[in-house]
Design the sequence.
């Protein structure tokens, strides 16, 4: 099998989409600026209207001006949502194209065929992918290759040589989104809708889909001697057992899932460079797609699968109480206090070490003060770091059949004339 470089047409499509997204991002930033200006103008009008006594005619003029600004504000909001939707669609297209570039487009060359007339050589267009298989119960690691060939193609072969040259995209990571504490203005009965500012996120995402220079790495050459029928979907074992160390890391993320998850880490202890490919896991007799190797794995390097749901680990996070206080010593401020109880039960037939990842909100406005009233048992991180980053974690040993309880209490103090709310962000 002889590899080709990624098709130029795909690169051109990706470049065009990236430029279109950059233009949309610029338009989003302009629209966000318009929204902010309209909001500030409405606040100024409201301040003037409530600060001095005015005659009815003047009040009507202020209300007309306010309504005009509000219409401008709402139209800008609609435009913003439309732009964000368009951006999301183009990002989906980019993802589809990137997935195509990750498939190794190549020519398949069959070195030897078993026929009555002797050896015959063939060439045909096709795709292939490397599949890495982790057996969760047996703790083994193997590799195979899967062919995508024309539906009508079918040949009996005795020997295939595979040589690979592959692009190397960067790895993707998963993380728990941060929980943001925010407030919005209260306009005395006139409905005004708060815009969630995306400028910071947009500036960080701007280069995410940029077309980077593709480097080529020589992979491996495999000689497959086994007699087989080669057709669309054929899978051939490359290595029955790759020398490796397998570690199972259990996690619970109460804000995301009502079950535990397991992340399987694999260290390459062989002397081979493992090329890119998809990762599959056999767990409890089921085959699960568990991620993609988007870079080569060299000797002594390692990778992790995506989180795989473990339904034998039950996770529950309940809001026990939410109360709002306005005590005299707070002046014009309000305080909302939230109390959570998280339970994790291990129904697996063995003990496990498990990492618990949870969060408290991070304020995006200086007028909000978040106070951690209680996290019990104590987390691994310092309270100062939790206030700054939001996320915290615990590591515990959970016996089979036992339950762990985590108590979390935090409060948010904010001006009484504002409305407090929380939302997720990456």
Sequence:
């Amino acid at each position: 099998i002889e590899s080709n470089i990624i098709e130029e047409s795909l690169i051109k499509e990706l470049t065009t989409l990236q430029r279109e997204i950059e233009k949309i991002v610029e338009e989003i930033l302009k629209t966000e600026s318009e929204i902010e200006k309209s909001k500030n103008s409405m606040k100024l009008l409201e301040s003037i209207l409530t600060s001095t006594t005015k005659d009815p005619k003047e009040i009507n003029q202020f209300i007309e001006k306010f309504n005009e600004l509000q219409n401008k504000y709402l139209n800008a909001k609609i435009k913003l949502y439309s732009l964000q939707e368009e951006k999301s669609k183009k990002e989906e297209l980019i993802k589809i194209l990137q997935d195509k570039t990750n498939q190794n487009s190549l020519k398949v060359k069959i070195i030897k065929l078993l026929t009555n007339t002797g050896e015959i050589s063939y060439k045909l267009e096709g795709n292939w992918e490397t599949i890495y298989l982790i057996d969760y119960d047996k703790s083994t690691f193997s590799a195979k290759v899967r062919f995508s060939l024309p539906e009508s193609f079918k040949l009996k072969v005795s020997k295939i040589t595979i040589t690979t040259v592959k692009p190397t995209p960067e790895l993707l990571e998963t993380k728990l989104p941060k929980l943001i504490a925010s407030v919005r203005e209260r306009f005395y009965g006139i409905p005004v809708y708060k815009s969630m500012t995306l400028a910071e996120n947009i500036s960080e995402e701007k280069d995410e889909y940029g077309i980077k220079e593709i480097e080529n790495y020589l992979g491996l050459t495999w000689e497959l001697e086994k007699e087989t029928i080669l057709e669309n979907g054929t899978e051939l074992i490359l290595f029955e057992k790759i020398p490796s160390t397998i570690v199972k890391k259990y996690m619970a993320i109460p804000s995301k899932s009502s079950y535990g998850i397991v992340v399987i880490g694999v260290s390459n202890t062989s002397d081979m460079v493992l090329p890119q490919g998809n990762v599959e896991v056999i767990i409890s007799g089921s085959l699960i797609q568990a991620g993609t190797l988007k870079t080569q794995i060299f000797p002594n390097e390692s990778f992790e699968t995506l989180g795989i749901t473990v339904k034998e680990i039950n996770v529950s996070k309940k809001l026990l109480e939410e109360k709002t206080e306005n005590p005299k010593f707070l002046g014009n401020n309000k305080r909302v206090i939230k109390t959570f109880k998280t339970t994790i039960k291990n129904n697996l037939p063995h003990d496990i070490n498990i990492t618990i990842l949870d969060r408290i909100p991070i304020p995006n406005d200086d007028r909000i003060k978040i106070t951690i009233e209680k996290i019990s048992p104590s987390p691994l991180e310092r309270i100062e770091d939790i206030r700054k980053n939001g996320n915290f974690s615990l590591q515990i040993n959970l016996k089979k059949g036992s339950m762990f309880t985590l108590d979390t209490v935090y409060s948010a103090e904010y001006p009484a004339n504002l409305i407090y709310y929380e939302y997720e962000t990456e």
The chain has three domains: 2-100, 103-168+214-306, 311-425.
